[in-house]
Design a protein that fits this description.
Number of strands: 0
Helix content: 40-55%
Distance between the termini: 91 Å
Strand content: under 5%
Low-confidence stretches: 177-195
Order of helices and strands: HHHHHHH
Largest sheet: none
Structural class: mainly alpha
């Protein structure tokens, strides 16, 4: 039985048990391990491959990325992000912006409902009559269709403004044939979606 120390035993005692030397029996094994670690380090320090153009993750029905995400693509190139790292940032940003959008929708809905409740309280028994006045103004100015398309047909603030503008017109201006037309077969509330005031 040889009394010669093993390769590991020739090393300083404080590093003999380090896992990096596990399985190394001689200087040749140490050299091979060193080359392996050097290769891993070189691979890890290699600059990422930056694509000419990033691939965006689009939700169903979405044709283009959000403008802020698209703009970030140019910044990502300057930062040297590869597609994988860019995708991680894009995923986070889409989730964050989506959350903000939902918060905005919720707050807007709450604000509209509160404004509608106040409008009904302020107008009380004159509510239907005042709606009719607002509708006449919208019809006279040819705004009914545009307001509906914009989702503002039953916006309490818009309704209040249209009602306020009623005093600027003479009653003759609202006679049949004197305006944009198209709503005369409907009630004032139906014509502009006021039946659901504050519910959109």
């Amino acid at each position: 039985m040889s009394d010669e120390p093993t390769f590991i035993e020739t090393l300083p005692e404080d590093i003999q048990g380090h896992e990096v030397f596990s399985g190394i029996e001689d200087a040749g094994g140490l050299a091979a391990k060193t080359l392996e670690l050097h290769g891993q380090l070189a691979e890890a320090s290699k600059p990422p491959e930056v694509p000419e153009a990033y691939e965006f993750s689009l939700a169903e029905g979405q044709e283009e990325p959000l403008p802020v995400i698209s703009a970030f693509g140019e910044i990502a190139k300057e930062l040297g992000l590869d597609q994988e790292r860019f995708a991680k940032v894009e995923k986070w940003a889409n989730g964050y912006l989506g959350g903000l959008t939902e918060q905005h929708k919720t707050k807007a809905k709450e604000a509209r409902e509160a404004a509608a409740a106040k409008l009904k309280k302020d107008w009380a028994n004159d509510f239907d009559a005042n709606l009719a006045m607002a509708n006449k103004v919208a019809t006279k100015l040819g705004l009914t269709e545009a307001l509906e398309k914009a989702g503002l047909g039953n916006d309490p603030t818009v309704v209040r403004a249209l009602h306020g503008a009623h005093s600027l017109f003479s009653e003759d201006a609202f006679e049949e044939g004197g305006g944009g037309g198209g709503d005369k077969e409907l009630s004032a509330s139906q014509a502009m979606g006021f039946d659901n005031l504050g519910k959109k």
